[in-house]
Amino acid sequence: MGLVHCIVNPASRDFRCGKMWPKLQLKISAAGNEVQAYMTEKVGHGGQIAYEIRQRWESSQQGGESEGKPPLVVAVGGDGIVHEIAGALRGSDIVLGQLPYGSGNDYCIAHNIPRFDLDKAIEILTTGTDRRCGAWRIEGIPCQKEGDYPAPESNVWDGKPTREGNVVRWAFLEADCGITSDIGRAKLRRAKWIKGSKKYTYLGVTTIPFWKRRKVEVTIDDGEPEIRDFTLISVTAAETFGGGYQINPGMNPVKETGLLIFAPRLSRLAMLSLMGPIKKGKHIGKWGITQKPANKLNLRCVSPDGKPSDSSTKIISYLNIDGEPVIQLPAKLEWHLDQITVRGATQVEW
Fold first, then answer.
1. In what helix (H) or strand (E) does residue 18 lie, and over which residues does it extend?
2. What is the rounded CA–CA span in Å between residue 20 and residue 6?
3. Which whole-number Å values give the CA distances from 274 to 49, 179, 278, 346, in the listed order?
4. For residue range 232-252, what is the model confidence (pLDDT) as tens digits?
5. CA angle at 251 for the pair 246 and 257, rounded to the nearest 5°
6. Which of 114, 231, 263, 273 yields a CA-CA distance of 20 to 30 A from 3?
């Protein structure tokens, strides 16, 4: 038992996380832990807090879980706060934990942390197993501000971009581009009155009929570039996204080679029908959807006259990164092992 740094997103699960936190804190303390709590106040604040914890540890060895052990930093909320904290801890020996209180909590699924039993999730904070896990490095053009959601800025912990004007983010769960990322972008301006997973169902049904067809130039690893019509491109660090949808069967955080999901141009009926097969991981092979090994992916926009471009085109293709649409094409994605230590259940399916 020792010190636990808990970074809480009070807005998670439609602001219920903040209301529940006092009870959660009592439960963590009752398990014999000393709790240091931090409440986030805006998008990106979780990463700033985590990086301050990291700096204290690396400069003076303060804030460790116990004597001589690195800190345990727990994300309290959903996959969004996990993403922020993981980015700031990446490359260090600090341990990331999670107490699930979001809508999807796919990071918990990956590490077999119970999503609906917080007592057992708290138990894993002290009895779980630490594993070094991989992540996708993603560099591209930052999206513009959307309503109250800010335009992404460069973070020192993400590393420098290779091209001026780009930003870098790391995906510890998933990155997707196409119809799913347009739906993710739509949540920033529409359907805020709908709660939970029903919001995404509504946004999907109302976005798909008006989604503009597009092409992308795809280069996989060191292969030749190919221009393709596409509906969905996805890479992940585990099998699921969206709260258990098995988008990438067989992928896990320690797999040496990444896996790419590619859906070509689909009819609108097929798009509407897609989520059922994805839920069960039965979409590979349907409607031309493929899964193939990939450690590097270069995605370039294609202009209306069919020419690849290193600049955005009129039809913007967004990239969701761990559920947040923060980058747009063109972009480069690279799979890297051994990026962060995660505390999960002792038994995992991979």
1. helix 12-30
2. 14
3. 39, 11, 6, 33
4. 999 999 999 888 889 999 999
5. 150
6. 114
Query: Containing H/E element for 79?
Result: helix 79-89
pLDDT of residue 350 exceeding 80, the answer is yes
Residues in Cβ contact with 4 at an 8 Å cutoff, skipping those fewer than 6 apart: 28, 33, 34, 35, 36, 65, 72, 74, 97, 125
Domains and CATH numbers, the chain: 3-127 (3.40.50.10330), 136-336 (2.60.200.40)
| 254 closest CA partner among 235, 241, 272, 238 | 238
Cα 80 to Cα 174: distance, rounded to the nearest angstrom:
11
Q: Give the strand pairing for 296-302 and 95-100.
A: unpaired
Question: What is the distance between the alpha carbons of residues 299 and 220, in angstroms, rounded to a whole number?
Answer: 9
- Side-chain half-sphere CA neighbours of 79 within 13 A: 27
DSSP 3-state of 20: helix
Q: How far apart are CA 312 and CA 64, in angstroms?
A: 44
Q: Which residue is listed with tokens 């922020």?
A: 84
CA within 13 Å, CB half, 348: 25
Q: Is 77 helix (H, G, I), strand (E, B) or coil?
A: strand
DSSP β-bridge partners for residue 132? 341
For residues 303 and 291, which has the higher predicted lDDT (pLDDT)? 291
Would you list the DSSP string of 255-297?
-SS-EEEEE-S--HHHHHHSHHHHHHT--TTGGG-EEEE-SEE
- Entry pTM: 0.94
